Amino acid sequence: MSGREYLGEFEHIVILALLRLADRAYGVTVRQEIEARTGREVSIGAIYATLERLQAKGYVKSQFGDPTPERGGRSKRFFHVTAKGISAVNRTHRALQSMTAGLGLVRSYS
């Protein structure tokens, strides 16, 4: 990768949800955060497919938590954004700001 890649729209939303959730970010909470903030219904499959793709790109990492009785002894898989992922968010954010500047459609969000 050249370091000039931009996030796709849903990748961008997923990473922003991870950043908001911090250490509470796993599939279900990511889905809930996105639905609450965007009003957009998303499938858990779409969340996990995107998280896997972001992990393959090096933008997120995952680790398993401790097994819990509530989950039948299964562990939650927690995700967090890497430094490379934060750079991608910032790069995409700057590109979107540049594209919308002067259009009068949205105010700059810094």
Task: Provide structural commentary.
This protein is α+β, with helices and mostly antiparallel strands and 110 residues long. The protein is 51% helix and 14% strand. A two-stranded antiparallel ribbon has the order 1-2. The longest helix has 18 residues. The two termini are 27 Å apart. 17% of the residues are buried.
Distance between the termini: 27 Å
Strand elements, count: 2
Main sheet makeup:
2 strands, antiparallel
Question: Cα-atom Rg, whole angstroms?
Answer: 15 Å
Number of spatially distinct domains: 1
Strand order of the largest sheet: 1-2
- Output the helix-strand order: HHHEEH
Shape: elongated
- The CATH class designation is Mainly Alpha
CATH superfamily: Winged helix-like DNA-binding domain superfamily/Winged helix DNA-binding domain
Mean pLDDT: 90
CATH architecture: Orthogonal Bundle
Proportion of residues in β-strands: 5-15%
What percent of the residues sit in helical stretches (DSSP H or I)?
40-55%
Q: Give the class from helix and strand content and strand pairing.
A: alpha+beta
- Low-confidence parts lasting 5 or more residues at pLDDT below 50? none
What is the structure about, briefly put?
The chain has 110 residues and is an alpha+beta fold.
How would you summarize the topology of this molecule?
Elements: H1 9-21, H2 27-38, H3 44-56, E1 60-67, E2 75-81, H4 83-100
Antiparallel strand pairs: 1-2
Helix pairs in contact: 1-2, 2-3
